[in-house]
Design goal:
With 510 residues, the chain is of the alpha/beta class. It has 16 helices and 22 strands. It has two domains: 202 residues, P-loop containing nucleotide triphosphate hydrolases (Rossmann fold, 3-Layer(aba) Sandwich); 227 residues, P-loop containing nucleotide triphosphate hydrolases (Rossmann fold), CATH 3.40.50. The strands form six sheets. Strands 5-4-6-7-3-8 form a six-stranded parallel beta sheet, with helices on both faces.
């Protein structure tokens, strides 16, 4: 009607607020702005909480059992043990030994009588945190649901380690902060904002590191060839053009006229390296490319006899999907199930991301020998997947997206970039391999510009020139605490503005 103010809303009916009035308009929800503000305020207010403080003698005793920790890792352990802050942030580049340092810190805390829990955004990351760092860990979603339903309660003074913190969305991170604050505990955010961001709204890890300060791990323990280390660092720091030049000098960029030719060359190198006994991972930015790589790899293995030529076709219960599986196939599970029925009447827990090799197929089920690092400590080595699960939630495991490779370490990483690639995905894909990290792409497909393009998340608050509070929201600090300032954000662009433009200029003059 005349004079009515129409305010834009999202698909859930939540009011959107304009947060940027510069060259382009951007909108965010009022509740997201409030969530970001509350989380930053809570983290700032608890910097002098004096929680989980551990004496230097106990820290020294624990560090003595870890003589291989470098100076950065030792500093991390000492800082987490002594800071007393309600929120600590650790930023570690790929391969810098975050998990090893966390294992040491976990032992320090437990010896001091501090209970330590771990959470991660995915079941695979939580499993790796539990097995590698030695802490009781689960997904963040699971923890929040269990607490909400009254099935779990955080103990007083608990330390909660958030692994892959840059992948955690803002609303879940706030929910965790509220729980830990109520328990008088401590959150340790561990991650790298230059790697793949949250699927949902995120960006909070980087801002917490900037606002609160962070312990930084910078010594790389993964790469055997310093040339690949330098290339990964260049991508991380926003110099994709120089990184590509470095990889070309290492003969690690393989360009072909057509994408199909690049994929065929990639599978050929994968097969040769694998035949030599190396641990090789094929990665891509897009699922459609992953599917093609998996089919090519499987065809090769059926020709060599590693995968049986005759298998079975499994169809999902809703008939929407099917897959051909045979003994010898490498597979990856795609859905969590805490009570998957087994033939003997028991149940097992399976996680999205579990990998293994098929040993037998029947009309009703698929038997999989799980990889050793994907088995639960008290779980079986072999599991049986019902036909419906196999049809709906099993994929070939020869190639994966770069997203699913985050936190993995292999001998050789082979990457198929595309225009959908980002700087973050390229950094993850090209930092997995100890001995080599290679690119296979179609020339003139735009992959170089894509690698130079950051898709990192930024806070909605940061889009406002003065970091203003959401309309109608007056979030009060805790008693005796100072509120957050509303200073203008001066954080530099994390990937070096102009990298894509430099690549375009270089190619136009070539």
């Amino acid at each position: 009607t005349s004079g009515e103010v129409i305010r834009p809303r999202d698909e859930h009916g939540r009011v959107l607020r304009e947060v940027c009035t510069q060259a382009e308009r951007r909108y965010s929800t009022v509740d997201l702005l409030a969530a970001e503000h509350e989380l930053l305020q809570r983290a700032t207010n608890r910097q002098h909480a004096r929680v989980a403080v551990i004496g230097p003698e106990q820290v020294d005793a624990a560090l003595a059992a870890y003589p291989d920790l470098d100076a950065d890792q030792q500093t991390m352990v000492r800082s987490l043990a002594s800071s007393g802050a309600g929120v600590d942030v650790v930023v570690g580049k790929a391969g810098t030994g975050k998990t090893t340092a966390l294992r040491c810190y976990g032992e320090v805390a437990r010896r001091a009588g501090v209970q330590v829990l771990g959470v991660a955004p995915s079941a695979t990351a939580a499993h790796q945190l539990a097995t590698s760092a030695g802490v009781d860990a689960c997904t963040l979603d699971k923890l929040l649901v269990e607490v909400a339903h009254g099935h779990r309660r955080l103990p007083a003074g608990v330390v909660v380690i958030v692994d892959e913190a840059a992948m955690v969305d803002t609303r879940n991170r706030l929910a965790l902060q509220r729980l830990v604050d109520n328990a008088g505990g401590k959150v340790v955010d561990v991650g790298d904002h230059r790697q793949i961001p949250s699927v949902d709204v995120g960006g909070i890890h980087h801002v917490l590191a900037t606002r609160l300060g962070a312990v930084t791990l910078g010594v790389n323990h993964r790469f055997r060839n310093p040339g690949y280390r330098d290339a990964a660092d260049l991508i991380r720091d926003g110099h994709a053009d120089k990184a590509i030049e470095q990889l070309r000098a290492l003969d690690a960029v393989h360009e072909h006229d057509q994408p199909a030719d690049a994929w065929a060359a990639m599978v050929g190198d994968w097969a040769r390296l694998r035949a030599d006994g190396a641990d090789v991972r094929m990665l891509a930015a897009e699922r459609t490319v992953v599917a093609q790589l998996n089919l090519l790899a499987r065809h090769h293995l059926t020709q060599t006899g590693e995968v049986a030529r005759r298998g079975r076709t499994y169809v999902s219960d809703d008939d929407a999907r099917d897959i051909d599986l045979a003994p010898g196939d490498r597979v990856r599970l795609g859905r969590n199930d805490s009570r998957l029925p087994q033939p003997d009447g028991t149940t097992v827990t399976v996680r999205n991301g579990m990998t293994g090799t098929i040993t037998r197929t029947t009309r009703r089920a698929v038997v999989v020998e799980l990889d050793a690092d994907h088995r639960a400590p008290d779980g079986p080595a072999q599991i049986t997947l019902p036909a419906g699960y196999a049809g709906a939630d099993v994929d070939y495991g020869y190639a994966t997206t770069a997203d699913k490779a985050q936190a993995a370490t292999v001998d050789h990483s082979l990457f198929a970039p595309s225009p959908a690639t980002s700087a973050e995905r390229a950094y993850v894909a090209l930092s997995r391999g100890r001995h080599s990290n290679r690119i296979y792409a179609a020339a003139d497909s735009g992959w170089e510009e894509a690698i130079a393009t950051s898709r990192a998340h930024t806070l909605a608050l940061a889009q406002q020139p003065d970091w203003a509070r959401p309309e109608g929201e007056e979030l009060q600090p805790e008693a005796g605490r100072q509120p957050l300032t509303t200073a203008r954000c001066h954080t530099a662009h994390p990937y070096g503005v102009g990298a894509a433009e430099r690549l375009s200029q270089r190619r136009s003059h070539a």
